[in-house]
Every structure is written in C-alpha cells, then in structure tokens.
C-alpha cells in the first residue's frame, strides 16, 4: 500500500525520486506546473522532451500516457510527464485521468523510483473540478499495484489542499500533512 502524503507548495521544490509534470501532448512546455518544471528544471528537460518527440512520439504523447526524462536542475532523479484529459461536460474522461496516475506509477516502477510527487493533474488549465480530480487521484493511487512507497500530492493552494484532504478522508485513510 502506497503511503500518501499531502504537501502545500510548489512541486518543483519537493525532493523526491520522480516529479510528475502536468504536461500537454506536445511535451514542449506550457504554463502552470509545466511552465514551472521547465523554468526551474532548465533546458535539459526540454531537450529530452524534443528527443522523445523525434524518436517515439512523433504525434505527441497521447492523453493518459506518461513518459520520463531527466529532472535537470530539480531535486529529483526524473520528471515523469503525463498528459491529463481536458474536462468535458458531455463526455466522462475519468478513466483517462486515472490513467495519468496509474501510468506515472508504472513508469516510476520501471525506473526504480520509490517516492513520487504528483500535482493535481487536469484541475488547472484543463478545467477538471478539484473535488472530482482529487477523488480520482487518491482512489487510483490507493488501488495501484506499485513498488512506489510514498506518493506526495503537492497542492499549490489551500483549496486544492482541502479537496485532497477530503478525498483522503473519504477513501478511509489519513494522510500525513507536510509543510509546503
Ligand atoms: N506546483 C504544484 N502545483 C501547481 C503548480 C506548481 N508549481 N503550478 C500550478 N499548480 C496546480 C494548479 O493550481 C492546478 O491545481 O497544478 C494543478 C494543475 O494545473 P496545470 O498546471 O494548469 O495543469 P493542467 O490543468 O493539467 O493543464 C495542463 O496546462 O500548463 C499547461 O502545458 C500545460 O497544456 C498543459 C495544461
């Protein structure tokens, strides 16, 4: 069973084996988490993403998938880039969001990473309601069959932190809080 820890703060400052980036399918950067990861992690990360586009993902990384690169200057061994689904009123894309967490843990296992920091994927620019996004994140991580020992959900603001606290409570567990 993965230990879940909630942290208030900036994911680029969390020292773990793998930092998960809320990327887009181009893998060429953006705003939010993506912008922070590339800005703080430095050009090595973008260079590695470009190489992935050239060698494996000519059409871009599909939604729900995950791929790893160097972490550059971040206090981590790897960045795991995952592409969340954009929120849709008419289509239930929950499975794609769950896949982001499941696939990221699978990639972490392949790399031997034991501590993984996740942002609240899709709940920013991609518009996913925080409560539901938190529920999917916590349920998927709890149910995952993985060697990862600790997952830290790094929440950028109090609203997101509260949403994840509620999701952890609903999932019948307690998560150790952490300074942001
Ligand atoms: N650390 C932790 N969490 C952060 C940070 C940060 N530095 N910056 C933003 N967040 C939070 C947001 O508040 C939101 O709750 O991460 C969550 C995800 O928000 P986004 O980064 O906007 O990611 P997402 O909603 O998945 O949208 C992805 O946005 O930045 C672009 O290139 C990216 O096109 C892609 C899209």
Task: Describe what you observe in this structure.
This protein is an alpha/beta fold and 180 residues long. The protein has one domain (3-179): 3-Layer(aba) Sandwich (Leucine Aminopeptidase, subunit E, domain 1), CATH 3.40.220. Helix content is 38%, strand content 20%. It has five helices and seven strands, in the order E-E-H-H-E-E-H-E-H-E-H-E. It has a seven-stranded mixed beta sheet with strand order 3-4-2-5-6-1-7, with helices on both faces. Helix 4 (130-143) links the parallel strand 5 (115-118) and strand 6 (150-155). The longest helix is centred in the middle third of the chain and has 18 residues, at 94-111. It starts with a strand and ends with a strand. The model has no long low-confidence stretch (mean pLDDT 96). The structure holds adenosine-5-diphosphoribose.
Which descriptors apply to this entry?
180 residues, alpha/beta, 5 helices, 38% helix, binds adenosine-5-diphosphoribose
- Summarize model confidence as the mean pLDDT: 96
Report the radius of gyration as a whole number of Å: 15 Å
CATH topology: Leucine Aminopeptidase, subunit E, domain 1
Q: What's the level 1 CATH class?
A: Alpha Beta
* Tally of individual helices: 5
The 3D shape can be described as globular
Order of helices and strands: EEHHEEHEHEHE
> Structurally, how many domains make up the residues?
1
Terminal CA distance: 24 Å
Number of beta strands: 7
Strand content: 15-25%
Kindly state the percentage of residues in helix.
25-40%
Bound molecules: adenosine-5-diphosphoribose
Largest sheet: 7 strands, mixed
CATH level-four homologous superfamily name: Leucine Aminopeptidase, subunit E, domain 1
Strands of the biggest beta sheet: in what spatial order? 3-4-2-5-6-1-7
């Amino acid at each position: 069973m993965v230990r879940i820890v909630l942290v208030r703060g900036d994911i680029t400052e969390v020292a773990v084996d793998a930092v998960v980036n809320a990327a887009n399918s181009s893998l060429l950067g953006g705003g939010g988490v993506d912008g922070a990861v590339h800005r703080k992690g430095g050009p090595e990360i973008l260079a590695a993403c470009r190489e992935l586009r050239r060698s494996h993902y000519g059409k871009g990384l599909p939604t729900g998938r995950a791929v790893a690169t160097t972490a550059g200057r971040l206090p981590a061994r790897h960045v795991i880039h995952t592409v969340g689904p954009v929120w849709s009123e008419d289509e239930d894309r929950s499975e794609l969001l769950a896949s982001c967490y499941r696939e990221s843990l699978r990639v972490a296992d392949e790399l031997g990473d034991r501590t993984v920091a996740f942002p609240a994927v899709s709940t920013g620019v991609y518009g996913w309601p925080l409560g539901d996004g938190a529920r999917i994140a916590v349920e998927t991580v709890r149910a995952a069959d993985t060697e990862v020992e600790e997952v830290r959900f790094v929440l950028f603001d109090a609203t997101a932190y509260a949403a994840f606290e509620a999701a952890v409570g609903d999932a019948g567990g307690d998560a150790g809080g952490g300074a942001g």
